[in-house]
Design a protein that fits this description.
With 210 residues, the protein is mainly α. It has a domain at 4-85 and 177-208. It has 7 helices and 7 strands; from the N terminus they run H-H-H-E-E-E-H-E-E-H-H-E-E-H. The chain has helices at residues 4-17, 22-57, 61-66, 93-96, 129-132, 136-148, 181-208; strands at residues 67-70, 75-78, 90-91, 101-102, 109-114, 158-162, 172-173.
């Protein structure tokens, strides 16, 4: 990423060497700085959108909720600094058996679970930066997915969950590795490249304009 403070100082020196008075120099430098900040805000929002889409693809509400912009280093990061959001195994049986029916012999409870193609009716995480970023709704969507996505062969239509089943081995959603290091690194590299060109063009336009 271009060193904006350094570039603005170079512009200040160039304008002084051209004989502009101090007040005019500071006014021009401020305009250049404001223009750079505006451009960065626009590019940063586009980069944030790409990162959110990556979170959506891997269905990680935690990653989306932690996304933030480091205005000092001018790059995307997460609040924790962590880029890996691996989900541990998730036992679903206790929740699946909520409002279950008693077995005829009284030995336990059961519930018939409809099983369709994985993801068929699964809620979607919004891809809009304004709806997704920092919204609790993303957490609710992810929790709902964990609770109701059936872990069964695709050809099955129904499965029966019972209190006799082992909650540690049956109806357990496997751990999922979700590492966003490469995605964020690529997005930040492209953001830096874009901003370097923008900063260079803005500074040059003010240097050549006076």
């Amino acid at each position: 990423m271009a060193n904006i403070i350094f570039e603005l100082e170079k512009l200040r020196l160039t304008l002084r060497n051209k004989g502009l008075d101090a007040r005019a120099v500071e006014s021009i430098v401020k305009k250049a700085g404001d223009e750079i900040s505006s451009a960065f805000q626009e590019q940063a929002e586009a980069a944030m959108q790409l990162a959110i889409e990556s979170g959506v693809q891997q269905r990680s509400a935690d990653f989306i909720n932690e996304l933030t912009l480091d205005s000092v280093n001018m790059e995307l990061t997460t609040e924790s600094g962590n880029m890996e959001f691996t989900e541990p195994p998730f036992p679903m049986l206790p929740r699946l058996l909520q409002n279950a029916k008693p077995m005829k012999d009284g030995s336990g409870i059961y519930k018939v679970i409809p099983v369709g193609t994985p993801g068929k009716d699964r809620p979607k995480v919004s891809t809009s930066i304004y709806d997704s970023w920092k919204q609790i709704n993303a957490e609710r969507i992810e929790n709902a997915r964990k609770q109701y996505q059936a872990l069964a062969p695709k050809e099955s239509k129904f499965r029966t969950a019972t209190s006799k089943q082992d909650a540690n081995t049956q109806w357990v959603k496997p751990a999922q590795t979700k590492d966003f290091s490469q995605d964020v690194s690529s997005i930040n590299a492209e953001l830096a490249k874009t901003m370097e060109g923008i900063v260079r063009d803005i500074i040059r336009s003010y240097e050549e304009g006076f």
